[in-house]
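Help needed: design a sequence for this.
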């Protein structure tokens, strides 16, 4: 007698996908507009937090926190092991499978947190900085909570509940910034950013658990057998993410060992300011386009079209910011960081190249994951880490500015072409389409930056930060408004958005 099949679990409905492509397109379009609005608010609060804490925590103290961040970031990536992306990418998934992924992620998070805490004493000896030890031990808590939060965020993104996720993360970041500012005012120095780092995942987890009202079932051995393919996919995602983060933070480690704490703080501030726009634009957009691309993986024309839309809209937002960073670096540093950080200026100028390539770089990453090609992206990430590490190491004798210039040029002119070539061979999006999506945007941004640097920036020397940035922002904004009005596709989309919002 054959066994009676188990009845369907009603909780599986939470993970069912929308089958109507037209409804999917409307959801993605509306959610992307909302996400970008929230990204603006998050960027504003983060910039405000940076500006306040930079004045309360001097570079020599902030460097202690900066030395710990590479370990925190790498541990966080390992703790997730790509399992949240597996929840989003799979065509079908059940409550039992998501529960198994949750417990696997929680275990990995615990192991990564313990490993980070165990590195506290060796790290202090490596950097010759005893204050690093308690920071490693305390901040390890954030790794465990980040691993758990990743599962809840993935569930919300799979079902395109983007608005709830964005509101929760904004509230969590505001709360964590308040914690940091209060502790800095109390004189806790470098513990302010440490506590901020710990508070963000804790606050986010609480808010998302309240919003989604989902709890995992207890771990069962049979459920773990069903997620073997997800573990394989997630392993390559985790490896890629680990190498990507290592590429971004290896400079902090090399400079910390070779040049000392203060140059480390300068490098950390410059690269993080430059990476802030792509984090506040591409990472939120991934919550919309990542799940949407995954649903279109069996429809190559629709997938290519959606990918092009992602890249062109991301470039429209990020490229003006890249131009502004390149041209306004002295005034951005003066306004955001204050007089103690003037040495960041040339580093921030070179870091603008990272923002310039961020739309395409991140878009290709989402494309690889949506098509289940995490293995291909992993090998490109290996190449990226090797090139970045080599360029930073070889340029170390020539100083921090040469190091960061080599890093950014390698990202733009070596790594991006490699990503495009591999995508052409492994996904439905071909290199000619990528060039069509990005070439004009790239040349427009670089041409505008060259004109401003040659003819406008010299005339603004000696100006205060606010009026100088206002002039640059006005010129850049005018140029991009003209670009939108002169591009039929962009002009039509703006008209449709305005009509949809105000035509009722």
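Sure. Designed sequence:
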């Amino acid at each position: 007698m054959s066994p009676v099949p188990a009845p369907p679990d009603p909780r599986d409905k939470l993970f069912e996908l929308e089958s109507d492509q037209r409804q999917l397109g409307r959801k993605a379009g509306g959610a992307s507009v909302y996400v970008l609005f929230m990204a603006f608010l998050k960027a504003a609060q983060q910039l405000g937090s940076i500006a306040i804490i930079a004045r309360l925590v001097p570079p020599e103290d902030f460097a202690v926190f900066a030395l710990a961040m590479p370990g925190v970031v790498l541990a966080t990536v390992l703790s997730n092991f790509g399992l949240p992306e597996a929840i989003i990418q799979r065509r079908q998934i059940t409550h039992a499978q998501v529960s198994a992924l949750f417990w696997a992620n929680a275990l990995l998070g615990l192991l990564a947190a313990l490993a980070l805490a165990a590195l506290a004493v060796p790290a202090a000896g490596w950097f010759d900085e005893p204050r690093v030890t308690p920071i490693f031990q305390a901040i390890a808590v954030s790794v465990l909570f980040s691993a758990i939060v990743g599962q809840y965020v993935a569930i919300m993104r799979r079902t395109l509940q983007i608005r709830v996720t964005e509101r929760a993360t904004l509230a969590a970041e505001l709360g964590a910034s308040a914690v940091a500012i209060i502790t800095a005012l109390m004189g806790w120095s470098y513990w302010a950013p440490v506590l901020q780092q710990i508070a963000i995942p804790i606050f986010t987890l609480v808010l998302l658990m309240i919003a989604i009202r989902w709890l995992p079932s207890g771990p069962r051995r049979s459920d773990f057998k069903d997620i073997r393919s997800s573990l394989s996919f997630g392993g390559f995602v985790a490896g890629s993410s680990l190498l990507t983060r290592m590429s971004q933070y290896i400079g902090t480690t090399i400079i910390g060992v070779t040049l000392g704490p203060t140059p480390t703080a300068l490098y950390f501030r410059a690269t993080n300011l430059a990476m802030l726009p792509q984090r506040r634009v591409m990472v939120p957009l991934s919550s919309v386009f990542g799940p949407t691309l995954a649903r279109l993986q069996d429809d190559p024309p629709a997938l290519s079209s959606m990918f092009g839309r992602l890249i062109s809209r991301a470039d429209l937002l990020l490229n003006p910011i890249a131009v502004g960073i390149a041209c306004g670096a002295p005034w951005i540093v003066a306004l955001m960081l204050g007089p103690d950080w003037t040495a960041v200026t040339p580093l921030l100028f070179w870091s603008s190249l990272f923002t310039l390539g961020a739309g395409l770089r991140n878009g290709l990453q989402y494309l690889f994951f949506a098509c289940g090609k995490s293995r291909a992206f992993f090998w490109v990430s290996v190449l990226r880490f090797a090139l970045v590490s080599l360029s930073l190491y070889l340029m170390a004798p020539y100083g921090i500015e040469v190091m960061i210039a080599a890093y950014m040029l390698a990202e733009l002119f070596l790594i991006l072409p490699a990503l495009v070539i591999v995508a052409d061979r492994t996904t439905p999006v071909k290199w000619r389409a990528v060039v069509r999506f990005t070439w004009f945007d790239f040349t427009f941004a670089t041409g505008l930056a060259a004109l401003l640097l040659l003819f406008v920036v010299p005339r603004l020397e000696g100006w205060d930060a606010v009026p100088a940035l206002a002039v640059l922002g006005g010129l850049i904004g005018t140029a991009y408004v003209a670009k939108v009005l002169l591009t039929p596709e962009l002009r039509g989309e703006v008209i449709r958005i305005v009509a949809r919002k105000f035509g009722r």
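The chain is about 80% helix and 0% strand.
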